[in-house]
Amino acid sequence: MLLEQLEKSTIEKLYLPTSDNKKIRKIVDTLIAHPHDRSTLRQWAARLATNERSLGRLIERETGLSFGRWRQQLHLMLALSQLAEGRPVQAIAGHLGYASVNAFITMFKKALGKSPTQYFASICPPSPE
To answer: Which residue spans traverse the membrane (predicted)?
Structure first.
């Protein structure tokens, strides 16, 4: 039921645009496997043997988002999935590479307007006993 409610949430807030571009696919695949990877755009450009500005423009053209915003969106999607599975916020924050739980909660609030606990309470209110 919780996953059904997530599907009904605002699409633009829960959408992760991707691309078939091989450089962007490499970033996507790596960050899904290692979401704690906090490599900068410059570091990604070096890994992919390209220019930082060119890579930034490519990501923005293909996804409509800056690299930082795109990675935040990926983290949000992964966090929502893990929260729906019942994982603790502390574990999720660490898994995603946030320096603190507060940093993770701040990102979540900026993106969805509520803390993780408030967000899930709003889409799946407790059932009356």
So the answer is: none
